[in-house]
Amino acid sequence: MTQPLTLPAVPSSTPAPDSPAAWTTRTITFPSPPQATAPVPTDRPGDFSYSNLSGRPSGSIVRALGTVVPGVRSIIDDIAPFASWWEQRNREAVGSGRPLWIVLGDSLSQGIGATSPDRGWVGRLADDPPALLRGMEVVNLSFNGARAIDVLERQLDVCDDLRRHHDVARVTMLIGNNDLMKPSWCRELPATLHRLLDAIPQGTVVGRQPGMQRTARLFNRMVEVAAARRGLHVADFRIPHLRDFAGRLGRDFFHPNDRGYAEMAAAARLTV
After folding, report:
1. Using an 8 Å Cβ cutoff, are 107 and 144 in contact?
2. What pLDDT, on the 0 to 100 scale, is given for residue 203?
3. Which segment of 21-25, 45-49, 252-256 scores lowest on mean pLDDT?
4. Rounded Cα distance, 110 and 120, in Å
């Protein structure tokens, strides 16, 4: 069964960019989230309510680019349907009675930039799990635009509640990209990250930052120290082929495309 979704819009090849004729409607079809089956359901699927939207508007720069760059507009239009897809899959997972894999993070864990949500790194591992994830259902708490403070103050509360009432077998966290986008957020990141790394469950798999700027290096060092102190696991996304994004970027030239996410999944598979 598939879920057809009609999204506006992609540019045609001939009219001027500011002409109404320059835009056509595109219909994309996402695969339906697999129906989770389990011998002992713990909740009805509709009992779990969580929004995979931030509740915040896109940033001013992103909105401005979206008015002139078709690829950026296309990505913005994908945010809500990707979130809706994960919300449905989350409800099925929580009601399945199976052990849960909880994902904390931002748009990278939503799969934004891929052709469909299941082609992101989380979707790929959920549908073709490594040994440690077999038999688990994924609950993806990530949302587009999330920063470390969002994981600490919103996603982690839901994660902790799920851990109290369900068998949570694995937690992964990939966060920090958005924190590096503004100087003020960079300055806030170390204190927030320190609190976050103290709050996430022992054994959580934490993704490194692939950037080489000073704040990214500090981020990775803090993760390494916390991993040694608290028994966390580090997913190393800094291998060379993930630093070269040629041919691996989506329509906005920022998020990964299907190929980029496939390589992220391959890297995560070694640790998750």
Report:
1. yes
2. 95
3. 21-25
4. 7
DSSP class of residue 155 equals I
Residue 150 CA to residue 110 CA, distance in Å, equals 15
Rounded (10°) angle between helices 214-230 and 183-199: 10
SS3 (DSSP) at 11: strand
Query: Beta strand 23-31 with 2-11: parallel, antiparallel or unpaired?
Result: antiparallel
Residue 232: pLDDT band (50, 70, 90) is very high
Total residues found in the chain within this entry: 272
**Three-state DSSP class for residue 199:** helix
- pLDDT: which is higher, 6 or 271: 271
Distance CA 96, CA 272 (A): 21
**Mean confidence (pLDDT) of the chain:** 82
Residue 254: what pLDDT?
80
- Look up residue 54 and give its two tokens: 């931030």
Q: Which residues contact 117 (CB under 8 A, 6 or more apart)?
A: 30, 82, 85, 86, 110, 111, 123
Residue whose pair of structure tokens reads 């040994």 in the numeric block: 131
